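Recall that a protein's primary structure is simply its ordered list of amino acids. Everything else, from secondary elements to tertiary packing, is in principle encoded there. The following example makes that idea concrete.
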Amino acid sequence: MLGVVFSVKTLNAGIKLMDAFMAGSASITLYNLDLTVYRVLVFPAPPAGMEWQGITYITEALFDTDTATIEFALRALTPAPPMSGAIHVAREDGTTLLSKNPGHLAWASDVGVNESTPVFAQNGQSYMLIHQPWSVGPVTVYTLPGTLPCKDCYGSPIPYGIALGGGSIVDPVSGMSLQPNPAHDELQVSFDPLGALPDAVSIIDATGREVLRQGMSGGRIVLQVAHLSSGIYTVLAITGMERIGALPLVINR
């Protein structure tokens, strides 16, 4: 029985129909609009103790550079509590491209990115966000297309403290940037003058403990960080009691 018209807008062949997804299925069929079969997407075996519960991001190029094959993302869940989940990306023949168990697609509204999807674009590059473990931080960021190498496996103590790699990264919500990063003695924190400016900037360590806080009234501040030990920290932009931005900071002695 045919289900809904699935939004597979990245397919060069256009919109298709798709079978209604059934938990525990081993495959799913895509149909042309005249109801002839277009492709059959074969599911790999689910992780032990789980079953496939959903399919999303059916694409010809997003997850793999081979445009002759279709790729898709699958979500696996345990059928009963305690709940756990996994994310699996595969080609149409069932070949695995990425498997994260535990794993949960991190909707960008959950992690401070001004989008509503775990797959988003920034500066012409596409990324996918996955929570590890289930439903909590840290968040891993994967570059697309290709075989999904980890762009920045930064493990934040807060779920939305993600980064997109390199020393010139900019938080996509607050417009915050850090220079230099890694830092040694001084850290310059700057904000997009067209955005909302925070009341204060805070630095927390890997345990979530605040190690420095400084108020600000403009778009730029210089923090003295010579007293901080080498390691990974999180810089937070704060307005009132709300955290409006977060970026990772590396202190390198």
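The first strand starts at residue 2 and ends at 6. The radius of gyration is 21 Å.
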